[in-house]
Amino acid sequence: MMKKKLYKILSSLHLATWTLIILILWFTWGILLAESENFAGGFKLMNSMLVRDWLGLPQKGLFLLKFWFTGLCLIMVLLGVNLIFCTCTKFFKIIRRKFTGPRFFMLMVHILFGVVALGHFAGFMTGYRYEKIRLAKGEIFAFENGFKVKLNKIHFMDNPEVLKKARKEFTGKEFHYRLNYAEVTLSYQDKELKTDRIYLLKPMQSHKIQITLNKFRLLASSGKKNNLKPDYNRTNRPGHNFDHELGVVLTVTKNPVMGIFMLTYALMIMGIFIHMIITWRRV
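Above: the chain sequence. Below: its structure as tokens.
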């Protein structure tokens, strides 16, 4: 009797509703913390590394953020438990009753949502992440037992002075996202795996490793007029006298479950869309 009552509570829509309300309030608290000067740095630190490494850091002002994140995980676990019990309930109902399209797709959406949530959690804990990798032409970043990233060249069409602005302040005339790129080579044990161009908002992927171009950066001036290497292309409009060379800032990440996560996410969206079409036709 007690087990049956507990099963009913854990699979109830009432529990799901209240859990989602608490989740929204918890996220709101997190947004307020992120906007606070006292905790903004802690969130940036969390986003710059794997969460498993972040949780192992000494407290030093991170206690409240770790409490918030732990609470978020517990809320998601409760929502996951509710999802499992609710899915089982619907599954048995589908077996007992007529097997219809809308019920099937709703069941699939429930299952895929759970897989997506697990994928998010796995992304926090597995793989690796290296941020703020500063490279100039010809420089190499070595990581993870034999992997290397080399910056071959930079192709920059705009006035480098624009890089003194924050990225969100770039205008379409000042910075051309589709023209400015860096060419990098990923190798393992000195064997080339892939060479490709990376753009802002368009990373390179190979062997489950992603190389992201975060920004271009100005290097120290050489003191010579127009001292740009041949690899750098620039506009020659009047008044554009450049005394800077350029470098880049990269992020290297590996998420072993990313492919499965993206596929599952796409299937979940597709299932919701198909379910909406079927139920809309019925109405």
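Helices lie at 2-10, 13-35, 37-47, 51-55, 63-96, 101-125, 258-282.
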